[in-house]
Design goal:
The protein contains 13 helices and twelve strands. A six-stranded mixed beta sheet has the order 1-2-3-4-5-6, sandwiched between helices. Strands 8-7-12 form a three-stranded antiparallel beta sheet. The protein has a three-stranded antiparallel beta sheet with strand order 9-11-10, covered by helices on one side. It starts with a helix and ends with a strand. The chain is α+β, with helices and mostly antiparallel strands. The longest helix has 22 residues. The protein has three domains: 155 residues, tt1808, chain A (Alpha-Beta Complex), CATH 3.90.1570; 65 residues, no CATH class; 108 residues, no CATH class. This is Restriction endonuclease subunit R.
Length: 362
């Protein structure tokens, strides 16, 4: 996947969205989805891309917006939604139902030109169409490799299946640790106490919990990195600058809240989640962040609350398993990798008309 082509696609799509934010579905297909398919290496002027592909359902027939074919066999379904709409679970479930009808279709994408969700059946025995990755248009500037999994070349060679299996395995490990965090941390703490004794002057229980949090973060970052093919220059960076960063013992994550270049506050902590919470607390207490987010819970995605006045997600999502308690009895969900923690802090700052800069371990 050529990075320059991806960035040109993103720039053009963002310009079109800025000029026509209320695009209907047909305009979204023509202006945004067709160029997206071409970016993936599929020839939209050939028979390998079939618009309005007929899908036989139990109750009759329906049509999926685009089917991508290898030979005469559809292998990817793409369902388009208007740019003026938001993706929701109904959109995803609709695509699932289409994929379920055609055994050879292992891949699906639902998009409104701004947000993308990729589904797969996988090749590891899973029957259900699972949500593999979700990303925004702007994410492609930093992660053009996200599209590799959908490229014609990768699907044709079987590389996509390998990537999907690795992502799914990492995702399963993350979910298991999140759901069993207390038990895993307790058992780890017991092992530590057996090895070093209970009299050690350290809160080993807290350290064990922090270790599990760190493992979840590492798995999330690894999940994002799967499928990336580093260049020789990237490999050299990993062997030098990243190792030096890993050896940095300062461990400080620094967030500067700024207004037009003027630093209003500098928050720092040796833990990513605590630094995120400190910055959020500052914005709540000094810049009325909550009034900019109300009504709570604040749910920027479709499921999890980012901030709530109780440690729970809305609906059936249940209790926040990883959170920090904020000032004035608010709760911040912190189960994110480093990149997403930065993104959410920046989002909070922008809500208050400010900017966030990141230094140190970030």
């Amino acid at each position: 996947m050529d990075e320059r082509d991806v960035r040109e696609f993103v720039d053009e799509a963002e310009s079109l969205l800025e000029a026509s934010p209320q695009m209907d579905e047909e305009a979204t297909k023509f202006r945004l989805v067709v160029p997206f398919i071409e970016l993936l290496g599929w020839n939209t002027r050939s028979t390998e891309v079939e618009p309005e592909h007929t899908v036989r359902m139990a109750t009759g027939k329906t049509k999926v917006d685009f089917a991508l074919l290898l030979g005469d066999t559809p292998v990817v379904f793409i369902e388009a939604k208007p740019a003026r709409s938001t993706l929701d679970e109904d959109s995803v479930e609709q695509l699932r139902s289409y994929m379920r009808q055609e055994l050879e279709v292992d891949w699906g994408v639902v998009t409104n030109g701004k947000s993308f969700e990729v589904l797969t059946k996988g090749n590891d025995g899973r029957q259900e169409e699972i949500s593999l990755i979700q990303f925004e248009l702007e994410d492609l500037n930093e992660r053009p490799d996200l599209l590799e999994i959908l490229s014609k070349e990768s699907i044709q060679s079987g590389k996509s299946d390998e990537i999907a299996t690795q992502i799914a395995q990492a995702g399963d490990a993350i979910i298991h640790l999140q759901e069993n965090k207390e038990r895993v941390a307790k058992e780890l703490n017991e092992v530590l106490l057996d090895e070093i004794g209970a009299s050690v002057p350290l809160d080993t229980e807290a350290q064990a919990t922090e270790f599990v949090d760190g493992l979840i973060t590492a798995l999330e970052e690894q999940r994002r990195a799967i499928g990336t093919t580093p260049s020789p220059e990237d490999e050299e960076e990993v062997s030098t600058s990243e190792i030096e960063e890993a050896q940095d013992t300062s461990g400080e994550y620094i967030i500067k809240i700024q207004d037009g270049g003027t630093t209003l506050a500098t928050l720092s902590d040796d833990n990513q989640s605590d630094a995120m919470a400190d910055a959020t607390d500052y914005l709540i207490e000094n810049h009325n962040l909550i009034s900019e987010l109300e009504p709570l819970p604040f749910v920027p995605g479709r499921k999890n609350a980012l901030i709530n006045n109780e440690p729970e997600h809305p609906g059936d999502e249940g209790e926040m398993r990883t959170y920090r308690e904020l000032a004035n009895d608010y709760y911040l969900f912190t189960s994110f990798n480093k990149r997403d923690k930065k993104r959410h802090v920046q989002r909070f700052a922008e809500k208050c008309g400010l900017e966030a800069e990141f230094e140190g371990g970030w």
